[in-house]
Write a structure and sequence with these properties.
Largest sheet: 5 strands, parallel
Number of helices: 21
Radius of gyration: 28 Å
Number of strands: 5
Order of helices and strands: EHEHEHEHEHHHHHHHHHHHHHHHHH
CATH superfamily of the largest domain: Response regulator
CATH topology of the largest domain: Rossmann fold
Oligomer: single chain
Length: 488
Amino acid sequence: MPIIIVERNISALNKLIHSLKLAGIDSAKVIKLKNNGKAMEKAKLMVRSGGNVDLVITDIFFNDEVNIFGLVRSMEKIPKLWNTPLAIYTNEATLENVHRIRKEIAHLPFRFILKGSDETTIAIILKEMISYKISNQKYLDLELKVRTNIKLKNISMLPKTLGLIDEYGQKYPKICSSLRMELLRGKLYNKFSKILRLQLDPIVEELQGISSDDDAYDPLVHKLQGLTDEVDGLREKARKRFAAAHEIDRGNWKVLYALYQFYMDEKDYPEAKDYLVSLIKTFPKNWDYFFKMGKINEIENDFLGAAKNYFEAARNALEEGASNMDLQALVEIAERSLETGQEMLNKMGESEIRNVADWCNSSRAETMRVLRKNNAQVRSILLYASKMSPQNADYLNKIGITFRRAGDYFAAAREYHKALKIEPENPRIHLNLIVALSLANDWEKALEELKIVKSLNADPEDELVILELGQILCQKNSEGLRNLISSF
C-alpha cells in the first residue's frame, strides 16, 4: 500500500523520506505530490481499485485551492480511509490551527510534526502512527458493525449490538475507551429511537380515520402508547449515555456535538444552544457552528442574532477557502442569510431605512451595519457558486438581490439579465428585474418587462403582485414600490 507525501520543498521531502527509512517503513512506496487536490484524487483511485493508503503526510497550505480542510473532509467521507494516519508536516502548528483541524477529524489518526524536528524524532512519530493504526482498526471495526446493524432498522438488533460494544470494550480497553463506548451506546440508542419513532405516524393516521367506538380503536391506542413509551425510554437511555461521556471529558467536541444534536431533536433549543456555545468557544473559526446558532436564532425570531451568526459563518467559510467546502453548504449559508436579511428589512420597513434620520436610532444603525456586512459576504459566496455552476440562473438572480439591497440597481439589473439568458421564461427573475429598473427610475423599460411577465406567469399569488406592480409603474409611485419589495 502506498504512502502519499505532499511537499514542495525538496530538502523537506528528502528529510521525510530518510525519516521513513529510519522508522523501518519502505520508502519505495512513496508517491510524491505537490498539492492536496492531487493527493485526494490519488487516494480515491487507490480505494476504487480495491487498495488502501498506509499514510498521508502533508503541509497545511492554507492559501491553496484545496487546503488541509478540503483534504480532511474528503478523507472523512470515505470509510476505507478512516484509518489512514494523517501527518501534518508544518511550521504552522499553533494551538488555534491544531484546534481548527482537529474539529474536522472524526476518525483519522493524525499528528502535527514540526519541520524543525530532527529525523529521529520524525521517525519515532511516524512509527507510532503506524502502530496506532493497527490497534485503532479494532475500534473502527466495531463502529462499522454498529452502523451496519443500525442500517438494518430492526429493533431486535439492539441487544446484540449492545453486547458487541460491551465485548469490544472488555477485549480492547485501551483503544475502545470508556468515552468512545459511552458515545457509541448513546448514538445507538438515539438512532434506534428515531427508527422506532417512524412507526408512530402511521398509527396516529389510522386512529384519525376511525371513531372511538370502532373495535380497532382501543388496541391501536394501546399500541401507540406502548411504542411511545419505548421511544421515550430509548431517548432517555441515549441522554444518559451522552451525559456519562460528557462527565468523562467535558471538553470533547464529539460529545458536545452529540448532545447538541440530541437536544435539537428534542426541540429543547436553550439546552442545545448551551452545547453549541461550548463548541464555538472551542472552535471559534468553525463556520458550521455559527451557521447552526443562526438557525436557532431564527427559530427564536431573533433575526439580528441570526444575521450576525450567518455573517460569521460566511466569513469563516470564505477564510477557509470556498473550494474546500461542499457547494451546497455554501449556498445554504447564502440563502439563509438572504431570507434573514429580508425578515429584518420587513420588520424595520424597507422604505424607512433609507431615511438618514433613522440612523440616529443606534439599534437600527447596528442592524444596518450587520445587514451590509452580511450582504457583501453573501455576494462573495454566490459569485463563487456561479463560477462553479455557470448555468445556474438562481445564483445570478440572488447576486442581483444583493446588489439591489446595496442600492446598486444597475448592477442588480445586469445580474438579472444574465440570469434571464439562462432562464428567459422565469417570471420571478423578470419581476426582480422590473423592481431594479423601477428603483433606477427606468419606468419605461420596467413597463416593457411587465408585459413579458404577464404572458409568462402561471402563479395566482404572483398575479395579484403583478396587478399591483402595474398600478405602481403607471403612477411612477416610488414609495409604493418600496412597500411592495418585501414580496420579492
